[in-house]
Q: What sequence folds into this?
C-alpha cells in the first residue's frame, strides 16, 4: 500500500510554493501533493485546521508574526501533523529554536522537490529529519552548553579521575597514580560516568574537553 502525503505550506515566497505545487506530485508519482498554502503566518492555524494535512512545511523567515509563531500555531491546531521548518540558511541557533518550538525537523530551501521527497516520507512516518552537517553542529553546540553543567558539581577527586581518563590513562595507570586497586578504579569510574550521565570513557573525555578541564 502506497504512502501518500497531503502537504500544507506556510511560506511567503510564491515561487517556492508554486514550484512545490507543480513538482512535488510529479517527482513523487502522485504520492505527495500540496493541499493548502498561505504566505501569512497569522493564517497558519486556520489553514491546517481546515485541511488537516499529513505534513506542514514552514518557512522560518517570514514577516511578523513569523515562522516560529506559525510552527507553534500549527502544533496547537493540528498536533498530529508533523512540522518541518525550512529556510534559505541553516543557522544552528535558528534551527534549534524551531525544534524547541515543536518542529520535527529542518530542511534547506535549496533542496529540489526530488531531494525533499525521501525526508518528507520519513517525517510522515515519525522520523526527525535534519541534514547531517547541521545535526553535527547542533550536537556540538549542545555539548558545549551542557558540559559545564555536567561537570561543575564534581568534587576534586572526581575531577582528578576525569582528567586521568581524558588523558588516556589506563585502569592500571590510574590505580598506580591514585594508590588504589584496579577494582577500585573501575568502581570509581562507573560512579563518575553515572554522575556525568554518559556511558563510556570516550564520552566522559569529550565532556572534560568541552568543559575546559584538560
A:
Amino acid at each position: 500500500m502506497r504512502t501518500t502525503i497531503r502537504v500544507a505550506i506556510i511560506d511567503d515566497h510564491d515561487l517556492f510554493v508554486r514550484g512545490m505545487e507543480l513538482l512535488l506530485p510529479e517527482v513523487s508519482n502522485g504520492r505527495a501533493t500540496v493541499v493548502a498554502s498561505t504566505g501569512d503566518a497569522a493564517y497558519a492555524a486556520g489553514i491546517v485546521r481546515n485541511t488537516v494535512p499529513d505534513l506542514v512545511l514552514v518557512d522560518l523567515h517570514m514577516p511578523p508574526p513569523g515562522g516560529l509563531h506559525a510552527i507553534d500555531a500549527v502544533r496547537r491546531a493540528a498536533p498530529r501533523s508533523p512540522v518541518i521548518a525550512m529556510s534559505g540558511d541553516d543557522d544552528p541557533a535558528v534551527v534549534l529554536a524551531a525544534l524547541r518550538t515543536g518542529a520535527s525537523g529542518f530542511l534547506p530551501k535549496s533542496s529540489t522537490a526530488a531531494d525533499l521527497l525521501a525526508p518528507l516520507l520519513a517525517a510522515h512516518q515519525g522520523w526527525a529529519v535534519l541534514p547531517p552537517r547541521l545535526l553535527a553542529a547542533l550536537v556540538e553546540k549542545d555539548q558545549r552548553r551542557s558540559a559545564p553543567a555536567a561537570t561543575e558539581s564534581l568534587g576534586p577527586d572526581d575531577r582528578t579521575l576525569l582528567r586521568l581518563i581524558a588523558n588516556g590513562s589506563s585502569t592500571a595507570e590510574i590505580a598506580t597514580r591514585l594508590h588504589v586497586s584496579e577494582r577500585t578504579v573501575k568502581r570509581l569510574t562507573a560512579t563518575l560516568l553515572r554522575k556525568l550521565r554518559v556511558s563510556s570513557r570516550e564520552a566522559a573525555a569529550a565532556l572534560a574537553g568541552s568543559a575546559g578541564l584538560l
Notes: The first helix runs from residue 14 to 27. The mean pLDDT is 86.
